[in-house]
Structures are given as C-alpha cells and as structure tokens.
Give the backbone structure.
Amino acid sequence: MRNMLLAAFTTIGFAATLSPALGAPQMMGLVASNAAVPLQCQRGDCFAELTAFCLQPERASPVQGTAYRLHDGSRLVAIATTRDGRQIELDGRKHLWIRAERSHVAVRIGMSSRTMARLGLRRVNIRVARNATLIPLAVNGDKTPLRRDEITAGAGPLRAIGASYVDQEQQWMPVARMTNRLINALPPGGRVSEERRTQLWDAVIGENGFAGVPSGTDQRLRPMYDQCQQAVANGRLSSLRRCLESKHDSMVGTLNNRYWHAVKNGS
C-alpha cells in the first residue's frame, strides 16, 4: 500500500489549488454493481444510479450533470431487450451517457428515451465490473485539464488504493450497495403509494437478499431503512428515495474521507 501511495505522489503531486470554475473536476471511482441494474425512464431520459467516489482530493467535486466517460469502456456491460423479445449487447461508449448526480458519491448512467425508441428497445440493464474509473469529458476553455500522468495515476495506483478503502470495505460498503439497490427500485422523482413503499423491502431484498454478504450487513441496513420509512409515514420527509439517497451518500462520503486521509498522509 505504501509503495502505491508513493508512486501516486510521484506521478501527480498534491500542490495544485484549482478553481472549480476553471479546472477539470476530479476523476471518480465507479463502484461495481453486484447485479444488473435496470434503467428507469423519466422526462426524456432513461437511467440508473450507481455509487461513485472521488479519486483526486486536490481537484474540485463535479457539479450535477457533469459529463464523464469510462477510462476502460469494457468495464460496463449493457444488455438490452428489444421490442420483439431479443437480447442484445449495446456499445456503452456509443449509446450511454454518464453524468454526476450528487457531487462525487453518485452518478447516473443512461440514454435518452428517443435513443431507446430509435433502437427499438423495451428494457436495458447495466452491470459495472470491478475497479472502473470515470474521467470527466474535456471542456473547451478548461485552463487546467487533466494531464496524461494524472489519468494514469488515477486509473492505476489511486484506483487500487480506492478499491482497498472504499469498494472492498466490508462494514459499510455492503450496506451502501444494498441501499443503492433500494434507491433504483424507486421512481426517480416524487412519492410512491403507501403500498409500494411498504413492500419495497420484500420486493428488493426478499428472504435471501443477504446471502453472500458480510455478517452484520442486515443489522446495519434495516434500522436505516426503518428510519426512512417512519420519516415518510410521519410526514417528516416527503420521499423515501430522497431519504435513502441521503443515507447512501453519508456512508460513501465517510469511506471516501478515509481514502482521502490515506492518500494525503501516505498511510
């Protein structure tokens, strides 16, 4: 671990002070999905939400809607079902967009409804492989674009360190992954019926939902889930999805802070 940190320091340095208005935002790690995630459609876009985290603490976090691409496009697989029932694999680099959703802890990946219709698709599921890295798209006039050595370090040694501190963390990342599954089972905006809201756990988690996950994941997830359900039932919060997003972001943010600390202090 120390050798990887030293290599990252040597490659990119940590002296830069960047203006969010002028500098490219940070590269991000895209956390692997344990299962295929379906796209949902709303207001002209079809998308799924996935967990991400910041790889470069010296660069600014992305604003909502910032466009990204995968460093290695093969780490995302998109399987579509056509209107006549055939299954096909899509070229994600050609048909899918990636946008920052909530700072550096969540992104949306998808395509427009018009593209879905043009390709004759009824449904699209996406799956992300391990150690995927996101790079912000270059913007004209950017005075501090990502350098080639930064990209090499971000997708290499820094991504490996991030995997250790974030992706592979065994206490809260499994909970964040499960929370992300619950989030994607809810509509992107607005409230849902009480029946759908109260049946969400059984519909998504079910009896065998914790098979193969670290011990204690269910004891950590259930209280948070119940808090959100209670807050919506009591009218303190208007949306179950928004509550779950907040819980997810807090967990991922905490893990990301540990990664930042390790990178900055070389520990």
